[in-house]
Design a protein that fits this description.
By secondary structure, the chain is mainly alpha-helical. The chain has four helices and two strands; from the N terminus they run ααβαβα. A two-stranded parallel ribbon has the order 1-2. It is an enzyme of class 3 (hydrolase).
Length: about 130
């Protein structure tokens, strides 16, 4: 979406825990993404590293628990801004992106991610 908007940015994803390091995305997430034209086949899970807090300008958390974890993980001298992803979708009443793993809500989560991504892109372009 950022490239389509003409932005030259680096986008990466990581978890605050080490549970799935090296694994591809959930097959249901990949299938839902593919239906909307996103290819997740090259993605592999990794854990947030200390370097992320200086290598990236902005780190976005999907929920308050991960937001708190990220703030605790941030090393001294960290320059990245840490925010909730849904801050970029103020029109959405939900401030946290739910984990779709147990309720098969991958379509709802992707709707939320696209909505917040559009807001983030607008913010970056402004």
């Amino acid at each position: 979406m950022a490239a389509d908007a003409g932005l030259d940015v680096v986008v990466d994803g990581a978890g605050t825990g080490a549970w799935h390091i090296g694994n591809p995305p959930d097959r249901r997430a990949s299938a839902m993404a593919a239906k909307r034209g996103y290819d997740l086949s090259d993605l592999r899970a990794r854990q947030v590293s200390a370097g992320d807090f200086t290598d990236f300008d902005l780190i976005l958390a999907m929920d308050n628990s991960n937001l708190q974890n990220l703030r605790q993980m941030a090393p001294n001298g960290a320059s990245a801004t840490i925010k909730l992803f849904m801050d970029y979708a103020p029109q959405n009443p939900h401030r946290e992106v739910p984990d779709p793993y147990y309720n098969d809500g991958f379509d709802v989560v992707l709707d939320m991610v696209e909505q917040a991504s559009n807001g983030l892109i607008a913010s970056l372009k402004a």
